[in-house]
Amino acid sequence: MMTILTSSSIFLLKEIIFEMLSYLPVKSLLRFKCVCKHWNATTQDFQFICLHFKRCPVLINKKPLEIESYATGFIILSTIGLILEYLICWVASSPNFIYRIRNPEMHQILEIPDSQNPILNMHMVVDTDNQLLKLLSVIHVIGDPGLPLGYEVLDLRNEEGTYSWQTLDLPKESRGETTILQNRICRHSTLFKIVDAIGTAYSMWDTTNSHIGIDIVDMVNDSYIGHTTFPNGFYSKDDCILWKRKLSFAKVVKDEVHVMVLEDYNKQQIKWAEAKLIIKLPFLKEVVQEQIKVLVGRRSKLCFSRWNWDKKSICTYDFKTGKVTTIVSSCNNSDLFEFITPCLFACKGMHADRLVSN
């Protein structure tokens, strides 16, 4: 007896559908939204969006020299698929900062409110394990000489679409060195650097006592974890990387890479590794008059940039096979790059980018 399957008799588990669709490119998923209501709902499910983001390959794009968004005047702060950017408008000789988030794949934008305090830097935090999508801003606390630096968090998963900055509670005592090296604090300058991993953000700046000040923020619970410092000598804050998803400082010395890792942290103790991790890079023995900078370290691979005179490349090194693979080659030394993961992230209140739609 033959059994005829109709469309109504075929049922796939949610997990199976997620598994199949999560490997497709964003543009394909956006086209498939019209297949049925269920598929359309899948592309808007945050659990699926996070799974797709984890599996989507990272693209390395070359930025224009002025590092501004094309034809908009907006200056890019960070890119993770979603692009965080700002524009300065002058009103009565005073700067007015306009912030927004843009999804270039979906041609959607969302305006972000400014803080009541001057924002010194802003960073977008994505944690797919905790299904987290938030903004962290470093602020200059006006009128409080004992606490010059503060932090505010904005949750981009607000279902009501009413976005506001929430100030984090910081200890005024035993916080550590918070005095910034430069006397004049500028908004969105290179004074501050923020990186994040596994739901934790690290805010760094050069202090007045030849150290790098580091504040650690729990982005899952919107709380301040603690403060630590790192000697600003052999390493600088520009040598900061994520090594196996941990905050680290890495520098190439001859044919070796020297890595210092932040091993553990909590409100009671912040612990750096007792000794540097030194890894041999045999291919560097053949390198002549090249500069090497480590970008990120994973369990099996090392991503780095290398430049010689006026040419620059981005490469990976496989620890197991010893193979060096060039990802981007023969670029001008002045070229800047951005690492982008195309994504389906969308926020309540996003609307069409008129510049693109027109």
Automatic annotation (TrEMBL):
Q: Which residues cross the membrane?
A: 70-92
Pfam families assigned to the protein according to its UniProt record, in alphabetical order: F-box-like
Q: Which UniProt keywords apply?
A: Membrane, Transmembrane, Transmembrane helix
Give the protein name, as stated in the record.
Uncharacterized protein LOC107771610
Query: Record's InterPro entries?
Result: F-box-like_dom_sf (IPR036047), F-box_dom (IPR001810), SCF_F-box_component (IPR050796)
Q: Report the SUPFAM superfamilies cross-referenced here.
A: F-box domain
> Which portions of this protein are annotated as coiled-coil regions?
none
Locate the F-box domain: which residues? 12-52
Q: What would be the name of the gene that encodes this protein? A: LOC107771610
> Does the record's keyword annotation contain Transmembrane?
yes
Record's SMART domains?
FBOX
